[in-house]
Design brief:
19 helices, single chain, five-stranded mixed β-sheet, alpha+beta
């Protein structure tokens, strides 16, 4: 036998009862053998790789599927081996299951013959569910008045206690430590190099929470009367009068409320609606900040007195109201009204409502705040409005 003949094998390829006897090189790959077999049985129209991939070659002797990347010798084929050419069945495309629930129209059509039952009860449950979801929103709205009442009451008590000034200084120290800006801060240098006074720069960066762009806008607005502002904010020692503990806490509350309003992001849609009603842009901005983007309260404030500065948030609770009486009757509240950490927490949340989440993680303060939330929800669920 010549070497050329030893390099070739005779094989039998079978497809759907038809037989093809072929002679192929032992170095040929199974992919080439498959292409030749498909071309023989089905014509040259299936020579593309995507169509050839549907076919497999199975060695009858071992019942093994031959690998496309292997050669004839690597698959250890022998003379007169029978090979089946098999076309893999393509699974039919199945549409994704329809997981959509029935529409309101379909439900009404399917149940229109049924009599109405328990309509009042279901409506009542829906209303109660809405109230449950509304508790957090109501507390967020009422909390400034609650916290102001607690701070004022605590300050009044400290005003007549020997260590009242000491507690005040502790609160002010902690309060200012979170707001102090280093004089050597690059932001301070950047703005002072532009010609603004260092004191106003520090105040602007503090109020705007280190936002340089907003601080610069504020400084530019104040630049026209900066000298008057400096004189107004730096009274002489002969004119200054010592303030009481209550007055000091009232100043802290006013500063917290001012920063709270400055940090409120205005709802531009509400701004446009109020402009269409004929109100001035400056009055609209002030009213929306004071009412925390509540359009009804903003309209009422603009109609009653466009130039008024009394925000609904700065009102304390009525001392004769049920919520105030319930708080003052609580031993938990009574024991903490004069503690500096509790007063600091109230001021922090009054300034930034988002800090409530952080204070709720404090082991000492969380129990008091949770009690206030529970007390508020009890008042609201009883149908009583905070006055």
């Amino acid at each position: 036998m010549s070497s050329s003949e030893s390099d070739h094998l005779k094989i039998v390829v079978i497809n759907s009862g038809a037989v093809w006897r072929a002679k192929i090189s032992t170095s040929a790959k199974i992919s080439k053998l498959t292409a030749l077999a498909v071309s023989h049985f089905h014509g040259s129209g299936l020579q593309s790789s995507s169509k050839l991939s549907r076919f497999r070659m199975v060695l009858v002797r071992t019942r093994a599927v031959l690998s496309w990347d292997m050669t004839v010798s690597e698959e250890e084929l022998k003379d007169n081996d029978e090979i089946l050419l098999v076309e893999c069945r393509i699974p039919p495309k199945r549409s994704a299951p329809d997981l959509r629930g029935p529409t309101s129209f379909e439900i009404n059509e399917a149940t229109k013959h049924l009599a109405m039952q328990n309509s009042e009860r279901s409506g009542q449950k829906s209303s109660e569910a809405e109230d449950d979801l509304d508790y957090a929103e109501r507390f967020s709205k009422d909390s400034p008045r609650i916290f102001i009442s607690l701070i004022e009451t605590g300050a009044q008590l400290l005003n007549f206690t020997p260590n009242g000034m000491e507690v005040l200084q502790q609160v002010k120290k902690e309060w200012n430590s979170k707001k102090d800006i280093p004089i050597h801060s690059p932001y301070v240098k950047q703005l002072t190099d532009m010609g603004f006074s260092e004191r106003l720069v520090v105040k602007a960066l503090t109020d705007k929470k280190m936002n340089v762009n907003e601080a610069m806008e504020w400084l530019l607005e104040q630049s026209s009367n900066s000298k008057e502002a400096d004189q107004a904010e730096e009274p002489s020692s002969s004119q200054a009068k010592p303030m009481t503990v209550l007055e000091e806490f009232q100043n802290l509350m006013q500063a917290a409320l001012s920063r709270r309003q400055e940090n409120i992001k205005l709802d531009l849609k509400l701004v446009e609606r109020l402009k269409q009603m004929g109100f001035k842009a400056t009055d609209i901005e002030r009213a929306l900040r004071e009412t925390d983007n509540n359009i009804k309260e903003a309209v009422a404030l603009l109609k009653d007195s466009p130039n008024a500065s009394a925000a609904t948030q700065s009102k304390h609770l009525d001392p004769h109201g049920s919520m105030f009486k319930a708080m003052m009757a609580s031993e938990i509240i009574q024991l903490n009204l004069e503690k500096p950490k509790f007063l600091l927490a109230l001021l922090s949340i009054l300034e930034d409502p988002q800090s409530l989440t952080l204070w709720l993680k404090d082991r000492e303060i969380c129990c008091i705040l949770n009690y206030l939330i529970l007390l508020h929800n009890t008042e609201v669920s009883g149908g009583r409005k905070l006055t």
